[in-house]
Structures are given as structure tokens and as C-alpha cells.
Design goal:
By secondary structure, the protein is α/β, with parallel strands linked by helices. The chain contains eleven helices and five strands. The structure holds adenosine-5'-diphosphate and magnesium ion (MG).
Length: 256
């Protein structure tokens, strides 16, 4: 029977969405007098949409985001030091193919990771391979790979994604060797792949993070050459939630 053969061929071609929908789609088309062109257009569009959705979800899980959050759930009113227009512009993701960098600076809880992830999610939706890591595990993994003579392979791994997000630079100081490996990664990606970095330390304090002012300067030089820095000055959103729940009192935070 030809319907069976169609189903087999659809499976063979991996057109699973059409395969699922075929019988219903055929019935509806017959009932509504749909033209061949319209019919083909409709079922192919559905297949493409379903494949795109699948790609996005695969890339999202490959990105290893700590959580999936978007700009839509970010309360810009709570953080007036952030220029919403600038973030929206970054969310168009032109910085990704251009190999440019975005740095979020600010104290804990002001939304650095949230915004980094939200831009990462946008990049994934736009089709860019993205990878999220915190600075400490990144350095640990480079150091381990170096000790095991696999540093080349590891650097390649971190250079593959079009967008690499390195969260929480500066929470813990990095030793000299780690700083040197980090510098190698940054110079390899320089002008080739985009970075999003977050840190609770201002750039002038990066000497302390990397222990060595020469390496710190070299790292900053490459990161900042093509970059946008978003300095967030404001209250912690985490604290605000605790204040609201009545767990703590914080005079600086207004109840809304
Ligand atoms: N302006 C905001 N609107 C909505 N949620 C926010 C906002 N700022 C922070 N959050 C939420 O508060 C928590 C802490 O934010 P996070 O981005 O992890 O802070 P940081 O990385 O700066 O320490 C997260 O759950 C985040 O989604
Ligand atoms: Mg964070």
C-alpha cells in the first residue's frame, strides 16, 4: 500500500514530524481542498520547525547552563544601573560571529549569571554552539590536562564553541600556572571566538586574581580589545527575595 511506503520513506529520510502527522494532514487536506503546493509547504514547514526545535534543545543541553533563564524574566526595573537597550542589542548576538566579548561586573546577586545565561540562550537559539563553565572548574581542567599531557586537546575543546561563557572569575585566586593556561586559552580564542565573562572584581583588582600583574595585563588586553563591559551597581536580588520573605531586614532594599 502506498501509504505504508510513504511512511517507510519518511522514516528513511528521518522526516519524523511529517511521519507522525501524515495521516491527519492528508485527511485535513482532502477535507479542505488544499492545493498540492499548500500541502507540501505546510508539512515541510512543520518538519523544519520540529528539527529546529530539536537542534535548539540539543545545543541547550550541550551548553551546560547552570539553569535556563531568559531576558524576559529579568526585572530591569530592579537594576536601574543596567542599560536595558544595551542588553537588548547584545541579545541580537552580533558579538558572537564577530568574536567579541561581553563582561559583566558587579557584586554577588545582581544578575550577572542570569544575564550571561540569557545571552547564551539567545546565542543557542541563533544557532551558535555555546558552552558555559565557571572559572574554577575551567582552570582545574586545564591544569589537569596539562599534567596529563593533554593540554592541546583541552584547549581545542574550549575553543570549539562560538561562544564560551566563563562565570565567576575572581571568587578564588588563580595560581600562576593556572593563570598562564588561562592566558593561553584567551589568546587562542582572541578575535576568533566570543566570550562572556562575569566577575565580582573590578578590572583593577584582576592583578590579585591572577597573582601576576604581567599575565593579568596580557589577559585583560586581549579580553578588552573588542568588548562591552556591563558594570552592575545595585542590590542583590537574592537578598531582596529574603527581605520579601521576612527572613532578613535590609534597609537598602525597598519592598515593592
Ligand atoms: N533583575 C533581576 N530580575 C530577575 N531575577 C533576577 C534579577 N537579578 C537576579 N535575579 C535572580 O537572582 C538570582 C541571583 O542572580 P545571579 O545572576 O545568579 O547573580 P550573580 O551571578 O550576579 O551573583 C538568580 O536566581 C537570578 O535569576
Ligand atoms: Mg553568578
Amino acid at each position: 500500500m502506498s501509504l505504508e511506503r510513504i511512511q517507510d520513506n519518511l522514516r528513511h529520510l528521518r522526516l519524523y514530524r511529517i511521519q507522525d502527522r501524515l495521516e491527519t494532514a492528508l485527511e485535513e487536506a482532502a477535507k479542505n481542498n488544499v492545493s498540492y503546493t499548500e500541502f507540501l509547504d505546510e508539512i515541510l514547514s512543520q518538519e523544519v520547525a520540529s528539527k529546529q526545535e530539536k537542534n535548539i534543545s540539543v545545543r541547550t543541553s550541550m551548553a551546560k547552563f547552570p539553569y535556563v533563564k531568559t531576558l524576559e524574566t529579568f526585572d530591569f526595573a530592579f537594576q536601574p544601573s543596567i542599560d536595558k537597550k544595551r542588553i537588548k542589542e547584545l541579545a541580537e548576538c552580533r558579538f558572537v560571529p564577530n568574536g567579541e566579548n561581553v563582561v559583566f561586573l558587579g557584586p554577588p546577586g545582581v544578575g550577572k549569571t542570569h544575564l550571561a545565561v540569557a545571552l547564551g540562550v539567545k546565542a543557542v537559539t541563533e544557532g551558535y554552539r555555546t558552552y558555559f563553565t565557571q572559572a574554577m572548574p575551567l582552570i582545574a581542567s586545564l591544569t589537569k590536562a596539562y599534567a596529563e599531557n593533554r593540554i592541546e586537546e583541552r584547549l581545542k575543546f574550549y575553543c570549539q564553541p562560538k561562544l564560551l561563557i566563563i562565570d565567576e572569575i575572581g571568587y578564588i585566586p588563580i595560581d600562576r600556572h593556572g593563570a598562564h593556561l588561562f592566558f593561553q586559552l584567551i589568546s587562542r580564542r582572541y578575535e576568533k571566538g566570543a566570550l562572556i565573562l562575569t566577575s565580582n572584581r573590578s578590572f583593577s583588582q584582576w592583578n590579585e586574581i591572577f597573582g601576576d600583574p604581567v599575565i593579568a595585563t596580557a589577559i585583560l588586553d586581549r579580553i578588552l580589545h573588542h568588548s562591552a563591559t556591563i558594570n552592575i551597581k545595585g542590590n542583590s536580588y537574592r537578598l531582596r527575595e529574603k527581605v520579601k520573605a521576612g527572613l532578613i531586614k535590609e534597609p537598602d532594599v525597598e519592598e515593592s
